Task: structure prediction
Amino acid sequence: MANLILILGDQLSHRLSALEGADKDNDLVVMAEVHSEASYTNHHRKKLVFIFSAMRHFADALEEDGWRVHYQRYHPDNPAQSIEQVIAELAREYQPERVITTECGEWRLHEQISRSHKTLGIPVEIRPDTRFVCNIDEFDRWAEGRKQLRMEFFYREMRKKTGLLMTSEGQPEGGKWNFDTDNRKKWAGKPPAPAPFREEPDAITTEVIELVNEYFSEYFGTTEGFHYAVTAEQALVALAHFIDFALPCFGDYQDAMSDNEDWLFHSILSPYLNTGLLDPMEVCEEAVRAWHAGRAPLNAVEGFVRQIIGWREFVRGIYWLLMPGYARENRLGNSRELPWFYWTGDTKMRCMHKAIDATARNAYAHHIQRLMVTGNFALLAGVKPEAICDWYLAVYIDAFDWVELPNTLGMVMHADGGYLGSKPYAASGKYIQRMSDHCQNCHYRVQDATGDRACPFNSLYWHFIDRHREDFANNPRMTMMYRNWDKQKSERREALRARADWVLANIETL
Ligand SMILES: Cc1cc2nc3c(=O)[nH]c(=O)nc-3n(C[C@H](O)[C@H](O)[C@H](O)COP(=O)(O)OP(=O)(O)OC[C@H]3O[C@@H](n4cnc5c(N)ncnc54)[C@H](O)[C@@H]3O)c2cc1C
Result:
């Protein structure tokens, strides 16, 4: 045999760099469901089903395409419990010339694979992951020498590079790079939100659901109602479903939240993009085609394209630029444990309950729930970054370290000093009231900041502003908040502090 080609669970693309130039007759593709990867955090059970099922379908597709595949199915007693052990066993058995793989999406595993040639005694070739618009070296070059790394400027470079939504004169379509000011509408039930794309479990997925229910019964969430796509063909149908039914309103209601609708007008494509079932450029090109055909407005399509070639590529660049130290950042000095209701949804705060409940059922919550509800609460309450990062990594079907970590540690917790935002996304209950109908069904009163029934977000917001004066008072984007805090009467400030202290001391009862 010539080579072992290692393909990981988020590398399910036929055009993966590790497969380039490989010899179907002599090389052996290796894929493995291993205990160490399945259990290093409290993964949502739907996430485990999705990844194992998509891996099994991909392995079958490779075999149908003529590849030789060694596939290890999960069993807790498998002798090989880690990727390294699987490779070591096969290397002993087949004596390959080398191991070939593609850069993985996590520093922890990247370290292990990078070192593995020492124990294996054969070369391990790690190829760049070409499934992104911007590769790691290109991002490093873009970042070099810049005082501040801002997504918006990076995004413009990516627009120019890809030509997406660019005129033939090299100008942004519609005369503006960004139409976000059009994208902040509250949703009041109309137009109706489309039902999400559903793919009923086939025999492979059903078998995986049984496996996960048997061996991962203590893990977060449920396998019930699993409806995600698990092949590239199905993911393309999910993309078409989004373009037809949700994209036209994606922009308008991008920041909206609802008490009754889990998915609103979001694409629900992140699981497929992150595992390689969909290609980011093909997704963006489809959306741009819909705009050209008059099937979706520019504010929606630009907003959607920005999320993918802007935010998604930017956070990946930040991750690889700053790891491994990045994961240890805690610039706001937070030390609080994660409140238990993050795992149970058992809280009287309606917005938190709704976001966590949807997360437990679907392994999904949309961006604004992640950022402005569960994230905002963790920021205001001063939860330890590592605890909240571990939660996000566990509970979402699309969560992989390279994308989860910068979003949580950076965008939400501002623990990195501000790579993902020039000011923290801290907000009081007023924001949640403005963008949703949660508050009208809540035990707490959003109009109150003090008193027993006052919305906890309100006093916590001022407590956050007050306790981080040294961190933010000189930030020009925060001046107004400090002015507002300072001009309140001292008794009012004391009452707000007292309410927030009570909230923090009794956080598990909220
Ligand atoms: C605290 C926190 C944690 C997050 N963790 C993850 C994660 O583990 N994995 C993940 O893919 N996204 C993560 N995000 C980003 C974003 O919330 C999800 O990508 C999005 O909710 C996925 O749902 P969707 O496909 O319906 O997205 P849409 O709203 O339809 O957006 C379209 C696509 O844009 C991309 N995108 C949008 N925003 C971001 C972003 N901030 N970073 C990266 N890509 C983005 C995604 O690929 C997404 O599929 C996180 C955001 C926050 C605030």
Notes: The radius of gyration is 24 Å. The pocket of flavin-adenine dinucleotide is lined by residues 266-270, 273-274, 304, 307-308, 311-312, 315, 366-367, 370-371, 375, 392, 396, 398-399, 403-404, 407-408, 411-412 (CB under 6 Å). The first helix runs from residue 35 to 39.
